[in-house]
Design goal:
The protein is α+β, with helices and mostly antiparallel strands. It has one domain (3-147): Roll (Thiol Ester Dehydrase, Chain A). The protein is built from two helices and five strands; from the N terminus they run βαββββα. A five-stranded antiparallel sheet has the order 1-3-4-5-2. A hairpin with a 5-residue loop joins strand 4 and strand 5. The termini are far apart.
Length: 155
Amino acid sequence: MPTESMILIRPEHLNHHGFLYGGRLLEWLDEHAYIGAMAHLKAEANLVTKGIDRVEFRHQVRDGTLLRVRSTLVHVGHTSLTTYTSFEKARDPLKIFRALVTFVALDEHGQPRPVEPLLLQPFSPSTDEEKRYWREVESARSRRSAAPGASGQKP
């Protein structure tokens, strides 16, 4: 169940060159990815952003542009879950930005907790796109855990 919303680009969203400020887009990314993740979880879930992978700014955006934001759950791990969130022009299927955002579920003491009991229903990737992103997230997790300095390893 993807979530979708719209954003109207206004003058206060622009940088000094007259284009959408990248920092504002990243703020919206975090917010909309969170909404996309929480749509699959019980109300008592407490998520924090763990990381953002594969950030791609593809096109500039000007004042007055209407953006469609779509966020889809693509991966569920033991204590984390990941959404694929994209921004496109509403009247043109031109994707202007996309990213994978990973969240960690925390307990009342701020420690990671299992995600599965918080899910409204079990998650399994069903579309080709979800399966592709599932593999991508798994691959990125493997690379990070094998990297020097990961899990207390010394470089």
